[in-house]
């Protein structure tokens, strides 16, 4: 997909941990979460909806405070 390959041994080893051991030292592959191959138009729509949602939440918080 065009993302840069890196050293993934840490993530592979963490996949074999028990639930308790993973909770003590959680290791999450952020590169895999951030790198998503999607069309530019969909990205624009998601950003617009996120800005609208954030604006609405801030407005409701402000009006609730007042």
From TrEMBL:
It comes from Henosepilachna vigintioctopunctata. The lineage of its organism: Eukaryota, Metazoa, Ecdysozoa, Arthropoda, Hexapoda. Keywords: Membrane, Transmembrane, Transmembrane helix. The chain crosses the membrane at residues 43-65. This is Uncharacterized protein.
């Amino acid at each position: 997909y065009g993302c840069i390959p890196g050293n993934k041994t840490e993530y592979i080893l963490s996949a074999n941990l028990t639930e308790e051991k993973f909770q003590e030292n959680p290791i999450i592959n952020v590169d895999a979460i951030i790198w998503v191959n999607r069309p530019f138009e969909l990205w624009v729509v998601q950003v617009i909806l996120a800005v609208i949602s954030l604006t609405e939440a801030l407005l409701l918080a402000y009006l609730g405070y007042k």
